[in-house]
Write a structure and sequence with these properties.
The structure is a homodimer. Helices cover 35% and strands 25% of the residues of chain A. Chain A has a 7-stranded parallel beta sheet with strand order 7-6-5-10-8-11-9, with helices on both faces. The first copy, chain A, has a 4-stranded mixed beta sheet with strand order 1-2-3-4. In chain A, helix 3 (88-101) runs parallel beside helix 4 and helix 3 (88-101) runs parallel beside helix 9. Chain A has helices at 12-15, 20-29, 88-101, 121-134, 149-154, 175-180, 184-189, 206-214, 229-244, and strands at residues 6-8, 37-41, 46-55, 60-69, 78-82, 105-110, 142-148, 160-164, 173-174, 194-198, 218-221.
């Protein structure tokens, strides 16, 4: 399937019409015509093969010929919650790379030392969709609006929860060792879900770290390297995927 | 040491003068003066604390007060050889992130399907130095000029050598499993060095893959995700560092 170009159609099985952006691309750029074969993912676990039935100036209608339900390539739900960096391009590449590597959900945190307190999640969503198509992912990661740190950590979450930080006075365990060490037997009884928090350029405040610990988050480090926020976010995703891959 | 700003001075113990770029930054931007304390890394494993002894229009002289030899945080020599992407910004961020995470050497390969056959390694070197300073690395990764694929793989290398590729007709093992599985006893007798090859956007040619195997490279995959060249390069470094960390 190396050369197949995918479209993204979340309502694939309902509408039989490509979404506006995708239709424009199909008609104006690829100049697809009635009878041509297309592939798309619905972002919910399936690839579809379809035949184009009608092309107008703006619309591209199709008929699904074959639906191929995909197998997940990692266990559990990997959720990264991160304070976005001051420079948007740094968050954006992180989101692209995390999508390629494979994760399930991203949330943005407004923290005490946040350099950026607003984020255009519509731009993030576009980058995610583009990476989903490029890397042929059957599931599209969920992109959430920004939340205050406290609001986020008070919400109940399945599975294990972690906060990455650099405070030496708070004891930390190694993130990758913790998530890799669950024995086969234990894993049958425990959720594989991971929620991991990464702070802003100036780190979380010590009060935020303590508040997270009080809410069931485990205190962790990503290793001995001093990482930028966006690199830490990507490493957290990469390690989670590696520990949970099937 | 969180707030310490480092300079990079590869000839630190010989010249007692900051390199031109660093001196300009120290004098014009930071407005440092005689008597001020500075820190720098020599890129060969040591941090130095020094006192500025003389500042002129263009020069910044110092006297080393304390030399702090650093402990490595990973075993062995991690060498990534990669075909650079068409878009330079993609290679550049990869190099920045790989330096933050931690590796030892980068080479650029000119392959059959390369989209870019020239690369300005002076720009890459600058990015590496900047990331070394920002992430407080005691060792600076080596940046090599571009080589033809065949030239590169014919050179002798210590340790294990790997080629990442997507051909289904060539059997592959999992890269991370292979480099993680060395038992403690074995590791006493074997070099921890890793050389890993990542191909261009269109992958290596099958002939290149076979040529590498003939030269002692092991055929590997980085996992089930379909990764862009620069993401694959970063994942190869990230996995190597994780498998070799101390």
């Amino acid at each position: 399937m190396k050369e197949v170009r995918f479209f993204y159609a979340p309502e694939a099985t309902i509408t039989e019409e490509l979404p506006q952006d995708e239709a424009t691309h199909a008609i104006r750029v690829l100049r697809l015509q009635s009878g041509d074969e297309i592939f798309f993912m619905d972002g919910k676990g399936a690839f579809h093969r379809a035949e184009i039935t009608l092309v107008t100036n703006k619309k591209c209608m199709y008929r699904i010929v074959e639906t191929m339900q995909q197998e997940p390539t990692w266990r559990g739900h990997i959720h990264l919650a991160i304070a976005p960096t001051k420079m948007m391009d740094r968050v954006e590449w992180m989101v692209e790379k995390a999508t390629e590597i494979g994760f399930d959900e991203i949330s943005f945190l407004n923290c005490r030392f946040s350099e950026r307190t607003k984020i255009r999640t519509d731009r993030i969503e576009k980058i995610v969709v583009s990476a989903v198509k490029q890397s042929h992912k059957a599931w599209k990661p969920i992109v959430n609006e920004m939340l205050d740190f406290k609001n986020f950590i008070c919400q109940p979450r399945e599975g294990r929860k972690f906060i990455c930080h650099c405070y030496e006075e708070v004891s930390k365990e190694d993130f990758f060792s913790l998530i890799s060490s669950v024995s086969q037997e234990e894993s049958l009884h425990e959720s594989d879900d991971i929620t991991v928090l990464v702070g802003p350029e100036g780190d979380f405040s010590i009060d935020e770290v303590r508040m997270a610990l009080d809410n069931g988050y485990e205190s962790v480090t990503l290793g001995k390297s001093r990482l930028r926020t966006e690199t830490a976010g990507l490493q957290a995703v990469s390690m989670s995927n590696l520990a949970r891959r099937i």
